[in-house]
Amino acid sequence: MKLHVINTGFFKLDGGAMFGVVPKSLWQRTNPADQNNMCNWAMRCLLIEDGDRLILIDNGIGDKQTEKFFSYYYLHGDDSLQKSLNQKGFDFSDITDVFMTHLHFDHCGGGVKWNKDRTGYELVFPNARYWSNKEHWEWATQPNAREKASFLKENIMPIQESGQLNFVDVNQPSPFTQFDIFFADGHTEKQMIPIINYKGNKVAFMADLLPSVGHIPLPYVMGYDTRPLLTLGEKEHFLNRVVNEEMILFLEHDGENECCTLKQTEKGPRLGETLVLSDLG
Q1: In which region does residue 36 sit, left (phi positive, over 0), alpha (psi from -120 to 50) or beta (all else)?
Q2: How far apart are CA 100 and CA 82, in angstroms?
């Protein structure tokens, strides 16, 4: 099995929103803001190559929204989903599975595109099964007012209409032999965190449970989380597990660091070392 980092570009989000109740004087040490209080974030995805399976975990923001929409997020960088896949020797038609940790637009928008005459939408990965879970799907398709702006119908409904939608059963073992799944409810209902067995290591794709190394201290919870106290408990449980099992964390949103490890301290889990996935050989 091989793991490939798929970089889909960078965007900016308000630092205060990304760190919730934590003062700027603290979070700016790891995530400096620009003059508009915006911090830089990656949209880093992961491709699992295993035999005849090519499993893409998340797929970035896509390019089908309006210029006004994108102006809020300051997209930048030379990377794109297609460019990154092509650099690894793959094309959209090669992907067999698209695993969506959750359906916020920066995690799933790259999976749907305009059709040729821009009268409707079609799936970017024509031969892939798209994976969510029933609980999160219902949450996303009947959104609460707080999250409604993050669940865009054009990113979600074409998947169902295509017939390519599949659901992970949250009460059963993972349907994938390549990874187990940790379900987290603090950020959004039933976010899925894959834990991949890779070259004798456990690599956890952290999605929005831990966006960056700057979010490692337990109180550093995003303002976007729907249940921040639940996130607090989930982080404590999972990060202690990371230390005990010596996991490697793959960071989807950290603008500088691809992966990291943790160590236990008197203050709880803290950053061990940063690394890139290729360091694993």
Answers
A1: alpha
A2: 17
Alpha-carbon gap, residue 261 to 249, rounded angstroms: 6
Structure tokens of 277? 């996935």
Strand 112-114 relative to strand 97-99, pairing: unpaired
Residue 279 burial class via C-beta count within 10 angstroms: exposed 0-12, middle 13-18, buried 19 and up = exposed
- What CA–CA distance (Å, rounded) separates 128 from 197? 22
pLDDT more than 70, % of the chain: 100
User: Residues 81, 59: contact at Cβ < 8 Å?
Assistant: yes
Average pLDDT, the chain: 97
Read off the pTM: 0.97
* 239-246 CB contacts, 8 Å cutoff, 24+ apart: 239/210, 239/268, 239/269, 240/264, 240/268, 240/269, 242/204, 242/269, 243/269, 245/202, 246/201, 246/202
Q: What is the pLDDT of residues 39-67, one digit of tens each?
A: 999 999 999 999 999 999 999 999 999 99
Separation in Å, CA 151 to CA 27, 176, 205: 27, 26, 21
Q: Which residues contact 93 (CB under 8 A, 6 or more apart)?
A: 125, 126, 127
Q: Strand (E) positions, 26-116? A: 38-50, 53-57, 97-99, 112-114
- In the chain, what is the straight-line distance between the N-terminal and C-terminal CA atoms, in Å? 12
3-state secondary structure of 143: coil
The one-letter amino acid code at 196 reads: I
d(CA 207, CA 212): 9
Q: Which of 20, 17, 14 is nearest to 36 (CA)?
A: 14
Residue in the structure block whose two tokens are 């799936």: 123
With CA atoms as reference, report the closest residue to 50 among 167, 161, 199, 166: 199
